[in-house]
Amino acid sequence: MHLTKHPALLASDLRYWVSHGLSLAELGAATGASVSDLTQDSERADAALIYRLYTYTSNRLHDPCMGLRIGHQTLLSDIAPLLPLIHHSQNGWQMLHHARQFWPLLTEADRLEVLAQGETCRVQVHPVLETQQHPQQTEAMINGILRLGGVLLGIDRAPDACLRLRRAQPAQPHLWRELSGVPVHFGCEVDEICFSRHILDQPNPASESAALDQALLQARRELGILRQRFFSDDITVLIRDQLPRGNMEGVSAQRQIAELMHISVRGLQRRLQAQNTSFRRLVDQVRAHRARELISEGLLSQEAIAQQLGYTETGTLCKAFRRWTGMTPGEYRASHPWSP
Asked: How far apart are CA 105 and CA 6, in angstroms?
């Protein structure tokens, strides 16, 4: 799955690393890419490259708080693709709605979720693919959202504001509190910011309906262009990633994938139809390809393979596999031995 990140956001990362003694030449040599070109180019950066940058710099600087430090220096200019939408929104609710809707313009490596439960609002960051989102990159994003939410709405000054992070309790938890400015809880299920929802009711003095309409028109155009790239390939990878987590049948599965793609279920169906395929057909293709891989490797039992493909019974796997190949899993394994 080809995921990208806007160069304005990458600039924030590079600004921090260079200020801590890492040259662009060193970063380029460590990742096998011309990082200096990324600073001058208007093209979106590859998320896999940014993952390698975070992996290298995390090991190089030996700072478990690096992500929070990067987020703490986030500027409004670092969210350039979303800035007109946020600047002209009517209130905090509309700011978050537009940020969530057009988040891929900023980065495709993670997705933004906004949940209102009782008196609390929760802003969550979920990596789309764990293999292309370093944990410290997620923490940089979380703290960056908190910082800008503080600048625009005063979120960080709410008495009940806090961060909830997936990382285990660190050796010096007070550092996270100092860098974020709010209490931090560790070992949580998701990475999120929590605060009183009433903060979002405040009207935005910079709100301007005509300017907002123009910004929405431009954002929709840019998102449409972005979403045309590698569309079927993106869905295929997402389906493969989600198969072991549950059933990939029916409308609920389509809704799950559509949310990850930041589009509606109907939009997902229309685009697949335009490419002469369907969601069900893609799921079947992914399962068939993955089944051949796993059975040829011979490392997992049929029960485990069935689970990896989202089946609850091995009999369902065997029946489907015979339809795909004309052979039983055992026959296929004997005739297609895997070699490293």
From this structure: 7
- Helix or strand (DSSP H, E) at 126: strand 120-127
- What pLDDT does residue 340 have? 44
Tell me how far apart the terminal alpha carbons of the chain are, to the nearest angstrom. 23
- The total number of residues shown for the chain amounts to 340
Give the Å distances, CA to CA, from 288 to 77, 231, 284, 320, 323. 46, 20, 6, 8, 9
Place of tokens 């954002």: 219
Query: Is 110:141 a contact under the CB 8 Å cutoff?
Result: yes
* Domain architecture of the chain: domains with CATH: 4-201 (3.90.1520.10), 230-335 (1.10.10.60)
214: its two tokens: 């123009």
φ/ψ of 107, rounded to 5, equals -155, 140
Chain centroid, CA 285 distance in Å: 24
pLDDT of residue 149: 94
User: Hey, what are 157's tokens?
Assistant: 């000054």
Pairing state between β 162-164 and 184-185? parallel
How far apart CA 330 and CA 6 sit, in angstroms, is: 47
Divide the 340 residues of the chain into consecutive groups of 10 and give the mean pLDDT of each group.
80 92 90 70 79 93 95 92 95 94 91 90 90 90 95 90 95 92 95 95 93 94 73 71 76 84 81 78 86 85 89 90 88 70
Residue 143 CB neighbour total at 10 angstroms: 28
Residue 229: what pLDDT?
A: 60
User: Which of 149, 50, 45, 132 minimizes the C-alpha distance to 91?
Assistant: 149
Which structure tokens are listed for 137? Answer: 């990159």
